[in-house]
Here is the input.
Amino acid sequence: MTGAQSDFLLLLAGIGALLVVATLIGQTLRRRLGPDGQNSTVENLNARIAAWWAMVTLLAIAFLAGRAGVIVLFAICSFAALREFVTLTTRNTSDHWAIAAAFFVVLPAQYWLIWDDWYGLYSIFVPVYAFLLLPVIAVLQGDTRNILSRMSELQWALMICVYCASHVPALLTLEIDGYEGRNILLIAFLVVVVQLSDVLQYTWGKLIGRHKVAPNLSPSKTWEGLVGGVASATLVGAALWWITPFSVLEAAGMALVITLAGFLGGLVMSAIKRDRGVKDWGHLIAGHGGFIDRLDSVVFSAPIFFHLTRYFWSAG
Amino acid sequence: MKAILASLTGGAILIFARLVTAVRGIWDGIEPVPAQRVYFANHTSNGDFILIWTVLPTTLRSRTRPVAGSDYWLASPIRRFIGEDVFNAVLVDRRPEARDTDPMDTILTAVDEGSSLIIFPEGTRNMTEEPLLPFKSGIYNISSKRPEVDLVPVWIENLNHVMPKGKVIPIPLLCTVTFGAPIRAEKDEVREAFLERASAALIALKPEGAAS
Here is the structure.
């Protein structure tokens, strides 16, 4: 077993222990507050925990399958997220081919470029070539109605759901001295810290949350939840320095940056939902909503984490 | 052999429908229990009955038959296989000049055999901006002749955008299928009144604020 594998299994054991504790707490709360499912907060909490078991299992399988597993997993996530996003965008029937191209050409091409380790192209493919090509396909249909909204909303959908999300597996392509063969742990660091930050913000908010951060955007986000969640997730990030190429302090700094980016990403995506009059992006992940509801924070932090790591640590 | 192939094809169609639409059934005013029912739905796409079929629980699915036009479904061996073997459709001829049996007799026979039905009372795909076309008399005739069977309104949302007419590649979008409270023709209710009531019950299920 390589060092990376044993470190990964150790991390997995830690997450497993955390989930066992969460499950026990969830079941205890259920027995005390609503054994027949009367308490909807507890039911939602338990649905979320059950979904976490499934998500962690899937991630672990993908990680053990290596590079191909991770790329395929995130390509599937991109597909599901794009499906949710495009459902809410402004579009006409004449956009059919542009949207089909986004799903069946741009998305696979972006992940293929990452598989191919072609940094020069995957870092500009969507914001340059897809952004120029898709409006061309659309205007060739001859429909000018709402053209600017239609095109920019599709471009933004691709940016969030495909381009940003693809920067998670892109971490595998970074070459870092003394960190060879361990890149998958960078992904684990990003996902664990950002997702844990979401959970901790939710928990702190439920426990002591009083003052709303953005009452117009998201009634559930509070200052207490934000500060408590970001601070505790930063500590967790620092404690995970041993799986990264960072020192303890650097790991804490990185964790702080990605949790803040994740929080802001959640706010932006909430604003879009609010404008479109929906509560969740989808319904496929029980208790959480859709793929975007679960991935919004990771999606916003992934490119930032990628570029910071690349600039300061990567030789390539 | 044919039955196995039909069941595999059915499974593949289910997976494909879920992949493209992540379709979700919403039971709003009625439960998915194995009672005999006639589901009547809005019709905007050839895939409409597939979505209803997909969200029905397996036990209900096997006894639910779509009512479809034989002029379309018998036109080629593949369509015949899908229409007759995979979906076990109740095929009726929509062309009065070409048929020798009354479609209503065929439909009532299927009801008397205990099958649930999926029917599109608009009669043809709605390509207009209106939410629904005027209903044909079929569901009134079913309900007045078999008053013990529930007619369940079913609103299918978004499928018309997944595969607009004339396009060959579907685009993935979330779809929902909403089942509403059942209705029956009341004793002495006239045709027009019943059809209007049925149409209103169906439109009431259309999600609010949905993109059109």
User: Anything to note?
Assistant: Chain B has nine helices and seven strands. The mean pLDDT of chain B is 91. The interface with chain A takes residues 22, 24, 158, 161, 164, 167, 169, 171-174, 208-209, 211 of chain B (CB under 8 Å). The first strand of chain B starts at residue 24 and ends at 27.
